[in-house]
Amino acid sequence: MSLRLPPLQALQAFEAAARHQSYSRAAEELALTHGAISHQISALEDRVGNKLFRRERNRMLLTDAGRLLLANVRQGLMLLERAFDTRVPTERRVSLTLSTLPSLARCWLLPRLLDFQTAHPDIDLMVDPSGALVDLEHDSVDIAIRYGGGGWSGVQQQLLMDDELFPVCSPQYRGGALPQTPADLADCHLLHNPWQPWEPWFHAAGLAQRETARGVSYTDSALLLDAAAAGQGIVLARRALARGDLATGRLVRLFDIAIADSNRYYLLWRHDHPRLADVLRLRDWLLAQAAPADPKVAG
Known about the structure:
Order of helices and strands: HHHEEHEHHEEEEHHEHEEEH
Strand content: 15-25%
Helix content: 25-40%
Shape: globular
């Protein structure tokens, strides 16, 4: 069997540079030169057709395409490591259950879970995708991500991230004849989520257009993005959910106008949890994943 894979050294260089956010520190770890690391990553960028890093001050930060590739590379490296690891595991193991919205689990959390496994190999994480407001005292859920205005009683809560909304569609929508101005949306098929109306965005864009309830509506935001990717119409997307599809080109953003989402994502947990230290480890990891967010809304 002939496999056309990049050299293992290139994958190791990419993973180390992503972990350290530095080509120099990756070079030190792998006993290579800075130039060798840069060459290996440039070769990978040519291979995938996307930039994998962007420079911010003295750090090398992953692009969205880099983040998606990192998840797959780490999975592959972990499988190789396990194949040659004959040690008997003796470490303490912890089981935690995270409840979150199905759309956020699929679009935001899933691509990041391999990073969590690498950072916390002693935690067995159960992801429970549910829109129900769970009872953290009785429902066997250790920590939850909820979308709303905050103010839940009887639990600890912390803001995970805010969001913004903007129109997206498939690059092949209407055979590639995409709208060029916001006013062109009047002649397009708009897809709807009853909990996320279009009219605030219309107002921000200076349009007098009114929203209608004609056609199919979706209450699940991930399903809404799937419908858009299938070419069924244009959707008002949340940045946190759409960024992966935008990075891969499955969806494209229309216009530079965005509005702040009136709801936010919050972390909820019990202050008296019997394994509070482990819950806080998961909380801190989630906060770190949400930290490198896109710039604030300008529209």
